Each structure stands twice: as structure tokens, then as C-alpha cells.
Amino acid sequence: MWLFLLIGAVVGAIAALAIYITVTKTVNKGRAAAIIEKAELEAESIKQQKILQAKEKFLQLKSEHDQKCNQRNNELRERENNIKSREGQLNQQASELGKKQHDLDSQRGQLKAQQSQLEQKMAECQALTDQANKELESIAGMSAQDAKNQLIENMKAEARTEAQAYINDTMDEARLNAAKEAKRIVINTIQRTATETAIENAVTTFPIENDEIKGRIIGREGRNIRALEAATGVEIVVDDTPDAILISAFDPVRREVARLSLHQLVIDGRIHPARIEEVVAKVSKQLEDEILETGKRTCIDLGIHGLNIELVKLIGRMKYRSSYGQNLLQHSREVANICAVMASELGLNPKTAKRAGLLHDIGKVSDADPELPHAFLGAKLAEQYKERPDIVNAIGAHHEEMEMTSIISPLVLVADAISGARPGARREVIESYIKRLKGMEDLAASYPGVTKSYAIQAGRELRVIVGADEVSDDQAARLSTEIAQRIQDEMTYPGQVKITVIRETRSIAIAK
To answer: 0.85 exceeded by the pTM?
Structure first.
């Protein structure tokens, strides 16, 4: 019984499941059909929208294309119109040129006819001129060539006079215009540069207290003084001069070594050859140290840095050298300051100019290559110790013995001349001084028409007196220029020389 019930329940369940499955499938098919129908409707709607959008895009692109085509056609039509207008203008210009060419051809024919008439008239004029010249030659008794030569000579003399007057006027104008600024710079430089002038010579005086010390310095049979002279390289003069011994030498360093050695020997009291050699060696070492210290102190005072130690030593040795009585170190410091001031006034580098000014005379204190001029030797030393090319050129060219390639070279030359030529800076040996003045006077007296010549103002002015009946005013002006040029080319002199030519006429009558 239960088995039948169980079987019936199972069969019922299976039937119910089959019915459920059948119903579910039927419902799902209806839903799928509805979804498919809805999707088809939406696809059709989207298709219609895309078709409409494509049509609108096509119409828009077509409109833009038509607009561009119309614009391009308008531009082409405008260009065509311009070309036609230009062609019309060119045709009109060609017509006008044809007319002008025709007019020119007719004018050319007229000019040829006029040229023929002109040539005929010129021939007639030349014939008349030749006839007139022959008549003038017969009347004047002079050929045309002679008259021409005389006229040329007269014109030359007149032109020479006018040229000299023009040169004088030009030089005066140049002096007025150019000298103002130059004088301002130079005067300002000199006023701002104040240094002491040291006058030295070849003799140093060593004071002593009494003749006993003098005898001890001389030594037995003069052995002490001979030892001292041999060790220092100087000449010691012991004469009747009271309380003094003279130390003579052209090298100031040697004189200073001898002076300091004598000072120490006199203070110590032990004076004999062995002690002399010891003291001289010690003093020489001390002086070398002092020379180096002097060079360093000079560089520090002037604000110059980076110099080679050998150049610093050469600067220190300048303290014991002199040129024409002017201390070389003081002169170099003065030149350095003048160069710096002038460079500042001219807008140049004052430090470079000051460096070149300080080193410009180092060739005078070097013992190398004594046969070379000191300017060349100084340039060689500066180049050897790695100085800049513009400074090397300024050193070598400060006496115009080397071509100037640096902008500071003229400054060093001018500053050296200012320092050496100012009153009281230098002194000359009297023989060379007199010889130079006599040479100036003889040079001026060698010109024809010169009656007297005088060198005045320490050779800085030469006055030349000429005869009034032999030299004209124009010739006097030329004579001063020629004498100045010869002095500049042939003579050596400090500073500048002014040449004054004096021409005067005197008429004397005596009333009795």
C-alpha cells in the first residue's frame, strides 16, 4: 500500500515537474520574443538617426566645399582682372617708349649736326688763338713755352706760400682744439702725482769721528783698505778731508754694501781682512733681503700683485740705481702713478697701465745681455717671467725702439717723458749738456740766411735770428719747421725743444 502511495507520489512529482518545465519554456519564449522585438525597434531607430546624421554631415561638407570653390573662383577672377589691367598699362608704356625713342632719334640727329658745327667753330677758334699767340710772342719777345714756364714758377711760389699759410692755420687750429684736453689730462696728472726728487752721484761720503778710526780702516800698510776694496768692488779714497772717507763706484749697490760694512766694522772695532770678508758677506746677504723687501713693499704700495719674484727683486734694485741723477725706483713709481691717472682719464685699465709703468725700466738694473738697449732687455725679461703681451710691448716701446701694438704703450712713453722732463727731475753731465746745446746752435746756423742762434732755457728753446733781406716771412715759417724736424730726427734731448725764428727790419737815422 505504502509502495503504491510512494510510486504515485513520485509519478505526481515527475508530472508536476514536467508541467513546470513546459510552462517555464512557454513563458521564456514569450519574453525572448518581446526582447527581440524591442531590440529590433531600437536598432531601427538608431539606424534612422545615423542616416539622418550622415545626411546632415554630407550637406555641411558640401556647403563648405561650395563656399571654398566660390571664394577661389572669385580670387582667380580678381587676379585675371589685375593681369588684364597690368597688360593694358604695359601696352600703354610700350607705346610711350616708342614715341620717346622716336624723339631721341630726332634729337640725336640734331646733336650730330650741332657737334659738327661746334667742331668747325673750335677749329676756327684754335686758328685765331694760334694767330693771337704768334702776335703776342712777337710783341713780348718771349715764346709761349717760356711764358708758360715763368707762369708755372710764379704759381708754384704762390701755391707754396698759400700752402705754408694753410699749414700754419691748420696747426694752430689743431693745437687749439686738441691741446685743451691733452693739457687738462697732463696737468691733472702732474698735480695728482707728487714725488721727491733724489739726486745721486758716483760717490758716497762715510763720516768718521777722528783720524784714529781712519788709520784703523787703512790698516798696516793699507791691507785693511785693500781687503775692503777687493771684497766690495769699490774704490775707497782716504785723503786730507777731515772726518770723512769717500766711497767711489758707479754701482750704487756696491757703494751701499761698502758703507754698511764700514759702519758695522767701526762699531764692532775689530777691523782686519778676515773680519772684513765676513762682514761684507753678511751685509751683502742683508742687502739682498732688503732689496727683496723694498720690491715687495713697492708692489704693495702701488697695488700690483702677481709679479714673479725675480721681477720683484729687480724692482728693489732700482732703489740703488739712478738715471741722469734721478732715482730709478722713484722715477718708476712716478711713471706708474702717471700712467694710472692718465689711463683712468682715458677710460682704460689703470692697473694694467700702472704695472707697465713700474716695470718699464727693469732693463737698466739687469746684468743679462748688457749689449741690448734697456727697453728691449726689459721686454725680454717681462716676457720671460710670463707678463702679458701688452705690458711686454709697452716696456719695449717706451723709447720708440719697438713698434707699438698695445694701447697702453703711448701712455708709458708719455709718462716716462713727463717724469724725466719736468724741471729738477734729472741732471746731465756738464760736458754732454754743453755739447748738446752747441749742436743745436750749429744745426740752426747751417741754414742760409741765419745770422745768430741761441739755445736758452736749458736747451728747451732755440732762438734763430735771420737776416731780413735774405729770408722772407714765409721762408722764416718754413725754416722753423725744417729745423724742428732735423732736431727731432738727428738729436737726443729730454722733453721738447721750441724753435723760434726771429726776423726783423731796423731802419736807423741820425739827426745832427
So the answer is: no
